[in-house]
Amino acid sequence: FEQLVCERIGCKHALAVNSGTSALIAALAAAGIGPGDEVIVPAYTFFASVSAIVVARAIPVVTDIDASLTLDPAAVERNLTPRTKAIMPVHMVGLPTRMDVLCALARKHKLTVIEDTAQAFGGKYHGKHLGTWGDLGCVSLDAYKVIGSGEGGLVLTDDEWLYTRAQSYHDTAACW
To answer: Where would you tag: which of 73, 111, 115, 121 has the fewest CB atoms within 10 A of its CB?
Structure first.
């Protein structure tokens, strides 16, 4: 399944986990997000986006959305501090975040981008699949999502080191 996902959406690595929330937590761990780090997250999202940040013992910075119901890039820039380590865009109800703008902002400030693609898996923005724009993409396979498997999730990345770190976190620190 992991290989099929990679082939279908064009990423190098996919890690199957037990839920979308677990995908977010593994992605945060892979990115080295921890105590005192701030993560930008939209004000309009499912609570798992924020709770995953709290599980990582980081600080969610709730940030305004725009008419797209996703992160407002101008609000993201206003909320950046020296403690900001990541931006977590959430593609809501199938609507994509302006990933080109957010990724450029993240590169400028050397931030990790962790996409929450739970409600838009399979969607595209400017021809590129959602979940493949950022450093890590997270997918929910809950029964009520785009691809429902009853439960489950995916961590997506092109970065082998991030994949290994996510795999290590997910597989009780054993890298296969």
So the answer is: 73
The token pair that represents 49 in the structure block:
């986006």
How many angstroms from the chain centroid is the CA of residue 38?
A: 15
DSSP result, 93-132: TTBPP-HHHHHHHHHHHT-EEEEE-TTTTT-EETTEETTS
pTM: 0.92
Alpha helices in the chain (DSSP H): 2-9, 20-30, 47-55, 73-79, 99-109, 160-170
CB atoms within 10 A of CB 93: 9
Q: In this predicted model, what pLDDT tens digit does every residue of 39-92 receive, in sequence order? A: 999 999 888 899 999 999 999 999 999 999 999 999 999 999 999 999 999 998
